[in-house]
């Protein structure tokens, strides 16, 4: 029986349309190779250009339009002329929260040892998965701005950590660690954040009792940042809050070769809503339209999408093909020292994937 998957395309801003186009080519190549899979696509124009024309980042009923898709494939959000807090909160965060995509999965994996700035670290040393809480915490958008423009001006930014939200992300991470047979590290900052992070640590300790087979560790975020640079091999699965996860995963991308290989999945594990897959390199407006954007992160997000669809073999094959194209060093974009265009990298990738 053919598995039919409907995918909503949100190419977005800057280089987003260029890299999403290569990811779609990969999906179409998989469809040609695997007669058990069929993909249909519908593209939506939402993003900063849409905002400048319509005064909003997406249609008012945008979530209703996306509701019945099997996955959302996002390119990038953000462009000069639109404040970052508007572009992020009114599109990306609106989808994450509206569809309860409370799990953010960011793999940090060194695919080619020449890419890492860390001296003496091999591929086996940099291979971890960050499970980031993706729906509340420091990005809840709660707070107040009092006495704006006055000498007494006060700004309050409130992190929201619910029992439900905290326990479910920690339990998800434990399940993933158990499934993979790996250790789990919790990252918090309880010595300074005496409510939210003390609560986080206490929930971690509670849930840990249900997983005696999983080896655990717990670090403060500053120490974890140091260890990620000095001893990345100590991390297998990492679970942390929204803000800390955002920061640590970009640091992880840096030690694994840069944002050109950084990908992220925004997952609703219960599958009540569609999950969303995206490269996380941003819109890079300085190189938009030049045809030199690196599509490999966007292609890696296709691997995460395939994993979510239960097509893990294709997911593994995509990642191994990314490694292969890095190793052969013939068709790479300028950020990796090559001279290939975005489309040339995509074409070479498909040839390797389907050969």
UniProtKB/TrEMBL annotation:
Catalytic reaction equation(s): (R)-malate + NAD(+) = pyruvate + CO2 + NADH
Gene Ontology BP terms: L-leucine biosynthetic process
Keywords for the protein's UniProt record, in alphabetical order: Amino-acid biosynthesis, Branched-chain amino acid biosynthesis, Leucine biosynthesis, Magnesium, Manganese, Metal-binding, NAD, Oxidoreductase
A Pfam family of this chain: Iso_dh
EC number: 1.1.1.83, 1.1.1.85
Ranges where the Isopropylmalate dehydrogenase-like domain occurs: 6-349
Family: Belongs to the isocitrate and isopropylmalate dehydrogenases family. LeuB type 1 subfamily.
Subunit and interaction comment: Homodimer.
Entry protein name: 3-IPM-DH
Organism this protein belongs to: Salinibacillus kushneri
Taxonomic path: Bacteria, Bacillati, Bacillota, Bacilli, Bacillales
């Amino acid at each position: 029986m053919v598995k039919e998957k409907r995918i909503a395309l949100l190419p977005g801003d800057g280089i987003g349309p260029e890299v999403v186009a290569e990811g779609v080519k990969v999906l179409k190549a998989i469809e040609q190779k695997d007669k058990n899979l069929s993909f249909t696509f519908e593209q939506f124009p939402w993003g900063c250009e849409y905002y400048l024309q319509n005064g909003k980042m997406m249609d008012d009923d945008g979530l209703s339009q996306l509701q019945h898709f099997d996955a959302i494939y996002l390119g990038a959000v953000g462009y000069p002329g639109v404040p970052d807090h508007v572009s992020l909160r009114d599109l990306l965060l609106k989808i994450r929260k509206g569809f309860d995509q409370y799990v953010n999965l960011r793999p940090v994996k060194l695919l080619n040892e020449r890419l890492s700035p860390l001296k003496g670290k091999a591929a086996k040393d940099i291979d971890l998965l960050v499970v980031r809480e993706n729906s509340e915490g420091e990005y809840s958008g709660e707070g107040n701005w009092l006495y704006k423009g006055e000498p007494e001006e006060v700004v309050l930014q409130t992190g929201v950590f619910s029992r439900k939200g905290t326990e479910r992300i920690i339990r998800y991470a434990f399940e993933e660690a158990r499934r993979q047979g790996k250790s789990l590290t919790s990252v918090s900052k309880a010595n300074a954040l005496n409510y939210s992070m003390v609560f986080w640590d206490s929930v971690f300790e509670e849930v840990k009792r249900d997983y005696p087979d999983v080896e655990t560790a717990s670090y403060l975020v500053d120490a974890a940042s140091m260890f990620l640079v000095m001893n990345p091999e100590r991390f297998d699965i990492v679970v942390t809050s929204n803000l800390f996860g955002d920061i640590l995963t970009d640091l992880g991308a840096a030690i694994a070769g840069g944002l050109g290989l950084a990908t992220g999945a925004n997952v609703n594990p219960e599958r009540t809503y569609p999950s969303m897959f995206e490269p996380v390199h941003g819109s890079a407006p300085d190189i938009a339209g030049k045809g030199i954007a690196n599509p490999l992160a966007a292609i890696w997000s296709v691997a995460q999408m395939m994993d979510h669809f239960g097509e893990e073999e294709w997911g593994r094959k995509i990642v191994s093909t990314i490694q292969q194209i890095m190793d052969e060093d013939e068709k790479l974009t300028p950020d990796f020292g090559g001279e290939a265009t975005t489309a040339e990298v995509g074409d070479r990738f498909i040839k390797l994937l389907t050969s």
